[in-house]
Design goal:
453 residues; alpha/beta; Rossmann fold; 3 domains; 4-stranded parallel β-sheet; 4-stranded antiparallel β-sheet; elongated; binds adenosine monophosphate; binds zinc ion
C-alpha cells in the first residue's frame, strides 16, 4: 500500500499517515458560512482537500473514506445580509448553498460524503454544551454559555503558542458576563428578530466553534483521522474546536492529523474589496475561464505555500490543458503514473504531480497522461466541454490565403502541404468558392497544428 505522508500542524512535522481504522478513514473540513458567492480564496481548501480525498480513496478504496464538510447556516453575517436585503435567512442560505455546490463542481471537486448544515444539529450542540457545563469546562451567564479556557490545559497546543501570547495577539471580546476575557461563546441569546432555538440558557443560537465540534462528533465520532481548513482557522477556531471536543468527549485528541492550507492572493496582493482585486469563482467562470483551468492553477502551488492567482498563470494553464486535451483525443486510458502517486503521497505535492504530467506529455505517454490527469481531477470528459469548441478560424484563414496565392502563381504545393497537415491532425477539410472550413474529427490532435505556426 502506498505510504502517505502528511504535514501535521500539531507536531509541525511530516508524518506517515496511519488511519485509526483503514476500513473507514475519516476526514472533516470546515466549510463555508453561506451568505454570499464563494470568492476564489474559498476554493483553495475545497480543491486541496478534494485532492486529499481523491488520494485517500485511491489508496484505501472509495468506500473506505468518509469526508464531511459542513455548511455554517447560522451566523451573524447571514442575519446582516437578511436585514440588508429584506429576504429570509432560509432563502439566502438555500440559494448560497446551491451556488457553492455548482461552483465547486465546476472546479472539479467531488462532493463530500456528508454536508451537514449547522441548523440540523442544534440539539447535538446543546447536549455538548450541557456536558461541558457538567464537567466544569463551561458556565452559563446572562443567557450565554461560555467555555472556560483556563480549565483546559492543552489550550494552544495546536498553534504551539502560549495562551497568554495568543490572547494578547487576538481580538478578545471583554464582556461583563465572562469570568475571564479569553473565555469564548458556546451559546448566545437571540433577540425576537434573530434566529433562535429554545435551550437551558433561554432562546438563543450557537457560537460558531461548537457547530463543528457537534457535527464532527455526530458524523465521524469522538476522534477521527484528519481535520482540515484554511490557515486563518487555526486560531481561534480550531483551538476552540479541540478544547470543546476533547473536554466534552473525554478524549486526548479530536483529530490525529491537523492540516491547514495557506492563503490565496491575487497578483501578489492580499485579496480585498477595497483593492478591487476581489472576485468570486463565478466571476471567473462567467468570464469564460474554464473550471478546469482554475483547478490546474491551484494545483500548481503546494498547499502549504501562499498561492498567487495571476492572469499569466491562467493563460499558461489554458494553453497546456488545450494541448493535452488535443493529445489524449481518442486515446485509451492507461495506468496512473507511479511518480505522480509518489508526489501526491508526499504531503500532497501537487506541483510535482503536474510536473510529472508534463513529463508524460513530452515522452508521448498519452495513456498514462490521461489516467494520471484524471486521478487529480483534470482532463476527464465532464470537464472538457470548454475545449471542444476549438477556434479554427486562424487555420482556415491560413489555407484560404494559400489558395488565393496559388490561383495566381499556379503553384499549389503550399495548399497541398497545409491540407495534408490538417488531415494528419485529425481535421476534415471542406473547401468551397466561399471559403474554407475545418471540422475536428475523433482523432483530432491540436498539438500537431502548433508545428504549422
Ligand atoms: P469562511 O466562509 O470565511 O469561513 O471561509 C471558508 C474557508 O475558506 C475556510 O477554510 C477559510 O480558511 C478559507 N479561506 C478564506 N479566505 C481564503 C483565502 N484568501 N485563501 C485561502 N483560503 C481561504
Ligand atoms: Zn470548523
Amino acid at each position: 500500500m502506498t505510504e502517505i505522508k502528511l504535514y501535521n500542524t500539531k507536531s509541525r512535522k511530516k508524518e506517515a499517515f496511519e488511519p485509526i481504522r483503514a476500513e473507514d478513514v475519516r476526514m472533516y473540513v470546515c466549510g463555508p458560512t453561506v451568505y454570499d458567492r464563494a470568492h476564489i480564496g474559498n476554493a483553495r481548501p475545497v480543491i486541496v482537500f478534494d485532492m486529499l480525498y481523491r488520494l485517500l480513496r485511491h489508496v484505501y478504496g472509495a468506500e473506505h473514506v468518509t469526508y464531511v464538510r459542513n455548511f455554517t447556516d447560522v451566523d451573524d453575517k447571514i442575519n446582516a445580509k437578511a436585514a440588508d436585503t429584506g429576504r429570509t435567512i432560509g432563502e439566502i442560505t438555500e440559494e448560497t448553498i446551491g451556488w457553492y455546490l455548482e461552483d465547486m463542481a465546476a472546479v472539479g471537486a467531488l462532493e463530500p460524503n456528508a454536508m451537514p448544515r449547522a441548523t440540523g444539529y442544534i440539539a447535538e450542540m446543546i447536549a455538548m454544551i450541557e456536558a461541558l457545563i457538567e464537567k466544569g469546562h463551561a458556565y452559563a451567564a446572562e443567557g450565554h454559555a461560555l467555555f472556560r479556557v483556563r480549565s483546559y490545559e492543552n489550550y494552544g497546543a495546536l498553534s504551539g503558542r502560549d495562551v497568554d501570547d495568543m490572547i494578547a495577539g487576538a481580538r478578545v471580546e471583554v464582556a461583563p458576563y465572562k469570568e475571564d476575557p479569553m473565555d469564548f461563546v458556546l451559546w448566545k441569546p437571540s433577540s425576537e428578530d434573530q434566529p433562535g432555538w429554545e435551550s437551558p440558557w433561554g432562546r438563543g443560537r450557537p457560537g460558531w466553534h461548537i457547530e463543528c465540534s457537534a457535527m464532527a462528533k455526530a458524523l465521524l465520532g469522538d476522534t477521527f483521522d484528519i481535520h482540515g481548513g484554511g490557515l486563518d482557522l487555526q486560531f481561534p477556531h480550531h483551538e476552540d474546536e479541540i478544547a470543546q471536543s476533547c473536554c466534552a468527549n473525554d478524549t486526548s485528541e479530536m483529530a490525529k492529523v491537523w492540516m491547514h492550507n495557506e492563503m490565496l492572493q491575487v497578483e501578489g496582493k492580499k485579496m480585498s474589496k477595497s483593492l478591487g482585486n476581489f472576485f468570486t469563482v463565478r466571476d471567473l467562470l462567467a468570464q469564460g475561464v474554464p473550471g478546469e483551468v482554475i483547478r490546474f492553477v491551484f494545483l500548481s502551488t503546494h498547499y502549504r505555500k501562499p498561492m498567487d492567482w495571476t492572469e499569466k498563470k491562467r493563460e499558461e494553464a489554458e494553453a497546456t490543458l488545450r494541448k493535452w486535451r488535443g493529445m489524449i483525443q481518442g486515446v485509451e486510458t492507461g495506468d496512473v503514473s507511479n511518480a505522480l502517486l509518489a508526489s501526491l503521497a508526499d504531503d500532497l505535492n501537487t506541483a510535482g504531480a503536474i510536473a510529472e504530467l508534463h513529463r508524460l506529455a513530452t515522452a508521448g505517454e498519452v495513456g498514462a497522461l490521461k489516467a494520471s490527469a484524471e486521478m487529480i481531477g483534470l482532463l476527464n470528459d465532464d470537464m472538457g466541454a470548454w475545449a471542444k469548441g476549438q477556434d479554427m478560424s486562424a487555420y482556415e484563414a491560413m489555407l484560404f490565403e494559400a489558395r488565393q496565392t496559388a490561383m495566381q502563381t499556379k503553384d499549389f504545393s503550399d495548399v497541398d502541404r497545409l491540407k495534408a497537415a490538417f488531415v494528419e491532425a485529425g481535421l476534415e477539410v471542406r473547401m468551397s468558392k466561399e471559403g474554407v472550413e475545418l471540422v475536428p474529427s475523433a482523432g483530432f490532435d491540436l498539438s500537431k497544428l502548433e508545428e504549422l505556426t
